[in-house]
Amino acid sequence: MKHASVMHDLLHPRSVAIVGASEDESKWGGRLLRYMTRHRIQGELYPINPKGGTLMGVKTYASLSECPGPIDMAILLVPSSRALAAVRDCVANKVKVAIAITSGFAEAGPEGEALQQSVLDEAKAGGLRLFGPNCMGLMNTHHNLAATTAVSMGYLETLPVGCIGMASQSGALMGALLARGIDVGAGFSTMVSLGNQADIDQNDIFDYLIQDPHTKIIALYMEAVKEPERFVQLLKQAQAATKPVLIVKSGRTEAGERAVQSHTASLAGAWPSFEAICRAHGVYLFDNVFDLLNGAMVLQRGASMNKPGLAVFSGSGGGGALFVDALDEAGLSLPALSEQTKSHLQDIFLPVHRELPVDFGVVQPKAPVDPVYGDPVTTAIGRVMEDESIGAGIVFLTTQPGMQHIARATAHVGMQCGKPLLFVHGASTVGEEARAYLREQGYGYVESPNDAMKLCTELWRRQCAALQTPVPASLQAADLAVPAQAGFLSEPQARRLLESAKIPLVPSRLAKDEEQAVQAAREWGGSVVIKAVSPTLIHKSDIGAVKLNLDSEAKVRAACQQIQDALGKAGHTLESFIVSPMLQADAELIVGIQRDPDFGPMVMLGAGGVLVELLNDVQLCPAPLSADQALAMLNNLRCRPLLEGWRGRQPVDKEKLVHILVQLGQLALALPRLTELDINPLLIVDGQPMAVDARATVA
Amino acid sequence: MKHASVMHDLLHPRSVAIVGASEDESKWGGRLLRYMTRHRIQGELYPINPKGGTLMGVKTYASLSECPGPIDMAILLVPSSRALAAVRDCVANKVKVAIAITSGFAEAGPEGEALQQSVLDEAKAGGLRLFGPNCMGLMNTHHNLAATTAVSMGYLETLPVGCIGMASQSGALMGALLARGIDVGAGFSTMVSLGNQADIDQNDIFDYLIQDPHTKIIALYMEAVKEPERFVQLLKQAQAATKPVLIVKSGRTEAGERAVQSHTASLAGAWPSFEAICRAHGVYLFDNVFDLLNGAMVLQRGASMNKPGLAVFSGSGGGGALFVDALDEAGLSLPALSEQTKSHLQDIFLPVHRELPVDFGVVQPKAPVDPVYGDPVTTAIGRVMEDESIGAGIVFLTTQPGMQHIARATAHVGMQCGKPLLFVHGASTVGEEARAYLREQGYGYVESPNDAMKLCTELWRRQCAALQTPVPASLQAADLAVPAQAGFLSEPQARRLLESAKIPLVPSRLAKDEEQAVQAAREWGGSVVIKAVSPTLIHKSDIGAVKLNLDSEAKVRAACQQIQDALGKAGHTLESFIVSPMLQADAELIVGIQRDPDFGPMVMLGAGGVLVELLNDVQLCPAPLSADQALAMLNNLRCRPLLEGWRGRQPVDKEKLVHILVQLGQLALALPRLTELDINPLLIVDGQPMAVDARATVA
Known about the structure:
Protein name (chains A, B): Acetate--CoA ligase family protein
Organism (chains A, B): Alcaligenes endophyticus
Radius of gyration of chain A: 31 Å
Keywords (chains A, B): ATP-binding, Ligase, Nucleotide-binding
Helix content of chain A: 25-40%
CATH superfamily of the largest domain in chain A: Succinyl-CoA synthetase domains
Domain CoA-binding (chains A, B): 10-105
Pfam family, one (chains A, B): Succ_CoA_lig
Distance between the termini of chain A: 40 Å
CATH topology of the largest domain in chain A: Rossmann fold
Mean pLDDT of chain A: 92
Strand order of the largest sheet of chain A: 9-8-11-10-12-13-14
Largest sheet of chain A: 7 strands, mixed
Oligomer: homodimer
């Protein structure tokens, strides 16, 4: 069966049978029938119950075979013990897709897993597609389809129509988002609880949402990634379709990963690579589903944040000040307003108040009507949001006279300014009128300042890292110096590989013996470093085969002797010495190439030395990467201050560092045999990055 | 007038006059009269309006002089232009305290400031105490006093009686908290909007709340600290009275401080010292007022968090997993449950589910009734909260059947378990029944997972740093070696001072000349460091008067020559050389003594070297400090991993480091003449902390 066709049967069925329908709303079968009848799907509805008759006024059939027409979709509410029979019945009656709500399958242990496999085999053999099991069903507001058992649905008189398409691996969280969505005025096109994904999976739904003309924003709650390659392809398609993708993935931490594993069959996968892939494709990443919903609520208006400047508006000086403290801590800034903006505000505020945060409490009496925005509050919000330094805005409402007016002014400006403008409702039910207005307008609001700051932080963070256009290959395998045989590369081999990839290295000479080493040291002048080269030796430092700070011939000779002795004792043969000048580094980084089993080659950049343990300061980016992406990696390092002219040192040459990262990406692409590469350290000497040591393995 | 008496007149007045009362509720005078009549103060109410007659059914007087009895309190709602006359009238009629709601005083510029001073002078001369101006008044629920213009008050049919006493420097934020408080079931004893604090100030109210028998929790929103000494005394009194104090202070960041200054006359003061003082006195510090309210809501039940273990309960595996990710990032832990706890859960969950996070979705059918807690959900929450590894709990509600039951179970356990148990309501209005139950019980809830995590983080953080008992003095001024004259101490002087304070130092020898230096170097063996001593030289490194890594006699001699030349060039006289062994440090710290103009002597501990710029890793604690406080400083350092056995290095001897911090505190106390002391670096050599260089100034 064609894929597009099954998604059509699933989300736009012309006829739906409910197997296990009931009159009793305390049962799933009664609840689901209630929702389906209330929202009156555009098609036929066949309740199935052995007793026949009518249920909730709808003619009911004793079995699928008695239904008067073809059945696109069957919703199975029978216990797991009767699931196999129900699926056989679906097959016999040429049902196209079945939603299995029932639990007791793969999530419940080995027995359930075997049952799930039998059900799946039976369905596949009969040409029946399966959704679930162990799910809460789905909703398509544009088809009046409420095929879900979610408790929240019981509270909806009308479906919350909109452009947010959502798929959730957790049914409970889907239900919570549906409920919160009603309250904040979010509109959904499609909402799907994925369950065990025995057949139709998250990627299928993701694909559908990208195609669906009613969906403009895609929101996913994930616990694991199925078929990572397809997932990445879909991220690219969503990006090409300019549909923002918002994701929450649990299992970001070790403890979270254990929690995910304990309630689902799937492994969470490594978060850092997942994060890097998402960032490279412009995904908005959130920590929890309510933040995700807040993001969708703001983005459904087509706005995006392109500057780190945040405008804060409040009816209270104190409230404004608290937001200013918070945004400073979040890395966002409160810009100075332009002279033009100030001139627009001159009749509204005294000179001292024509600044951020804007305080509505000090609006001048008798401010004239602005030609564009009208009243003073709307004008203040509108003119400040126009300021070119502003990327997004927050309006903080406390309990005050004229609350609805502030809400109206915010919605008016926010709907049209093209920048995210978030309403932080701090007036609780006292401000219900304002809240109701924003809900009815589908504008929405948040009630926690913490939620507001997390949202703005992510809106801006996402802006910094996305890849805009594909990076072409610029390195050819033929240009790269790499041994034909598999295995660990010796240091000279690794150096040749880096040289061929145009990555700058600390200069060095190979010396066959002590005499040549002395000669090399003399040529470098000053202090030198001597290291052993041996085909069998991997961890040189561990056995004392690296000697630093050698500033005399005597020391060079002694070092050569010591290295030879150390190698002999450890059972290695000396191939040669490497002699390099001893450099004074201003900073120390680690860069390299890793290959993620799910997401392929990644370029890594991290703080080196003592900071590795302390800061966990590592950035990943999928290869190949653009110069912009490389720069974003660099700018996101926590140790960034050390690279920007610390204590009078020379700032690092960012262009050179970017070049190294870009070349590593190209190297990963051109040489699939290269399974890993670690340049540690990459020293910054007088602002110039250069590789000192490299470890590499080829397959 | 006695202070206690004025606070009684202010918050328990036997008679209140409203100057500027009105029938029109769109005016402050109408609104205030409406609130006062609705809640019927226990005493006399005299509306004052030139027209006389009745207003809202209450007999109204044309002026204060016509009132039939004495007036404890007058609320002034007249414009600022008529404030002086109104105050004179109060004085003439022997009013005891006046609340000036009106704005247009010190907050509005120099003219307003002058007006405020005149009003204050007039009041003082006449024995009238003043509250405000530019405030929203106050409320005492236990006296049915609703003397506030807060818009939120219009939505209250009954006053929200409870034990949270609150004072806010922002009227708007007070109003917002009153509104949010209604919604989350928080009960207030007293709520005060401070305004400009011309006379009665935050400390007066703080003092009152400590004495007030109806107040168990004290919550303050502050922008500046008036009379820091008194404030600290009050912190001590609140601690002695075991009343938790919760504070939000704006102006934590530079940008926030500017925002505060722009709307209030007061300077915010330095946040780090304020934070240190608060932490030392067990204050809960929050970033925004809603977090503060959430804290008060949880603490009003008398619970406190004494372990970092957090129990997470959820009806959804996905919801649980998201919280686990978040708490891991917040430094809290999800402990393993004890065998005893597991045995209590054995009939409720399968073995694999007898762990955190607890998932209500997998309760076994037919679980028996627990003798203590009854039903399975209450039992699961109750038994897990009893576990000795648990310090606090979070119940996360998604939309699911039986939501009210989960709320009831949470409130039941939470009211009596003595540990904070927070209800995170994620079901929005769909879960209104559960929400209403928690509201009515005065139990409360939060709706944002971010708010929940911030609250738990602060509940635990506060636990770690409070000083339990005063620290006695253990160092006497007479024991300390310090020059009699004021000024900057030379290095030998600073070393003698540290030695007399029993602070370990890197060993050193004084050398009068090059020969003595060579001799000293020989005695130390290995590499040495040589530094210049000169009475006029402060920044030795800057002019090249410090030479490191001298490992031969030739180098020692050369170094002495270079230092002498450098001193000569810079116009300093050489007093002597200091010769010390060159030590290999595993880590580098900075410690010292600072004197805050508001809060007095502080001991400082920070990461040294490159980390200073990078981590802003500084801890302050008021002197003198206890060993526990010193240990908390150490444990709160971001660079802590470097001190605990990094890359196989020896862990720092914490006892020694704690001793140094404690001694610094004692030194600050014993020697008030010591205006500042910086030990930089304090090296950690083979686990032992030792001072290498010290800069000190005495007055």
